[in-house]
Amino acid sequence: MPQPLSADDLTDVIHTGHFELTSGLHSAVYNQTAVLHQDPARCTALCTQLLRELGREFDVVVAPALGAIVFGFECARLAGRPFLYSERAGGSQRLRRGQHLAPGQRVLVVENVLTTAGTVEEVLALVRGADARPVGVCALVVRRTVPYPWENEVPLVAVVRRDMPGHEPARCPQCAAGVGIDSPGSRRAS
Which of 15, 66, 69, 99 is the most buried (most CB within 10 A)? Predict the structure, then answer.
């Protein structure tokens, strides 16, 4: 059995500097998971590991667009299950383009990076709103070690889970020190 992957295997994903995250928070750490799309075998290995660690049955995979589509699709392909993706529309995550969940379906939610987990919480609400049942969340990187409130009910597995603090811009130590900021994945990036 291959050894589990770790942060050491993701050195090209985990960057240090001064970054604006998608959440709007500032951090000294940024996770550029899109580089993994360039290596399908590596993406498959990561998704295989996540599914093995999750160890739960599910009927369908849902991933939020855009960053998690590749990983969600690969988890669905490996498990032989349907794949759906949600999109932000009207301020929240929604299934569109003829996609839908059926009542009672067991749903695996796949995300690339969790910081505040706001998007995952929206997807969980979307699943529950369709009378489907979330049975797990898989993520490549989770930027905190403290559990999210929903983890008591819906288990979360990740390749890397460690504290990577984020700061409100007004309280950012790097901003206070005059360090320039990069916004490589922020919704605010141009």
Answer: 69
168, 176 contact by CB (below 8 A): no
Taking the model in full, what pTM does it have? 0.89
pLDDT tens sequence across 64-95 = 998 899 999 999 999 999 999 999 999 899 99
pLDDT at 101 > cutoff 80: yes
pLDDT digit string, tens, across residues 103-160: 999 999 999 999 989 999 999 999 999 999 999 999 999 999 999 999 999 999 999 9
Q: 128 is written with which tokens?
A: 């529950």
Q: Where are the alpha helices (DSSP H) in 17-137?
A: 40-54, 69-79, 118-129
Domain containing residue 165: 7-176
92 exposure class (CB count in 10 Å sphere: 0-12, 13-18, 19+): middle
* Amino acid making up residue 173: P
The CATH number that applies at residue 30 is 3.40.50.2020
For residue 154, report the phi and psi dihedrals to the nearest 5 degrees: -125, 110
Rounded Cα distance, 48 and 45, in Å: 5
Dmax over Cα atoms in the chain, in whole Å?
52
Query: Is the residue at 182 inside a domain?
Result: no
Tally of domains within the chain: 1
Write down the mean pLDDT value for the chain. 91
